[in-house]
UniProtKB/TrEMBL annotation:
It comes from Streptomyces nojiriensis. InterPro entries: AAA+_ATPase, ABC_transporter-like_ATP-bd, ABC_transporter-like_CS, ABC_transporter_ATP-bind, P-loop_NTPase. This is ABC transporter ATP-binding protein. PANTHER family: ALIPHATIC SULFONATES IMPORT ATP-BINDING PROTEIN SSUB, TAURINE IMPORT ATP-BINDING PROTEIN-RELATED. The lineage of its organism: Bacteria, Bacillati, Actinomycetota, Actinomycetes, Kitasatosporales. Residues 5-233 form the ABC transporter domain. Keywords: ATP-binding, Nucleotide-binding, Transport. GO terms for molecular function: ATP binding.
Amino acid sequence: MSLAVRLEGLSAGYGAGVPVLEQTDLEFAAGSFTALLGSSGCGKSTVLNTVAGFVRPTAGQVTAGAEPVRGPGPERGVVFQHYALFPWRTARGNVEFALRRLGLPRAERRRRALAALAEVGLADGAEKYPAQLSGGMQQRVALARALAAEPEVLLMDEPFGALDALTRTRMQTLLRELWQRRGTTVLFVTHDIDEALALAGRVIVLGGSPGRVLADHPVPPGPPDPDLRSLIARRLGSE
Ligand SMILES: Nc1ncnc2c1ncn2[C@@H]1O[C@H](COP(=O)(O)OP(=O)(O)OP(=O)(O)O)[C@@H](O)[C@H]1O
């Protein structure tokens, strides 16, 4: 299950001053996995936040499938760098809580929460509280929380940025597997060029103020291509 995402003539910002995005056009095919790279402050999170429906565009529009985005919705799941779990709820409780807004009966919430926790490899940790879980496990709960609603678009803002290198590699492998199995459209913000190339089928470099697309490359399957890596690195460095 997946939806195409389209940004058309999108302008967005925060109050007065230079807009963060101006007249941006981008299209993400249904089921695609795209990484967004770019220097700090260029508007990567703002792109995600407009697709999530957290930030309203000042002009233009975002559509997910056939529907214009008018606010947050369960078909668009979000995972941030900071897991924002409720410390007083168990892993299962955190996932179940996120399902409340879907109006599902309690037994179905429980079934879905346990299935999503199993899918991210946390079946044994379902009854643990966040303080009893490592950073990587907490991020698995955050991922399960997003997946349990069965989103058709997954918006990930530096989700593995706070994890140590080994845990990060494991989470990348898990995410690739989930994406291959579910076929969800993924928009993934990262600062890490190697992470972008390892995960995504397309890499976009944003930059400037207002932010615009500096580079947009398909990533061929197989081992990372050093020429593509240096091309993207130059784009990132040229800002
Ligand atoms: N809630 C907010 N209120 C005011 N300004 C904001 C807000 N969020 C972001 N900005 C500003 O908008 C610009 C773009 O921010 P955004 O978070 O989209 O960039 P980014 O590329 O994701 O940056 P980073 O890589 O540092 O996370 C920045 O100048 C930032 O200071």
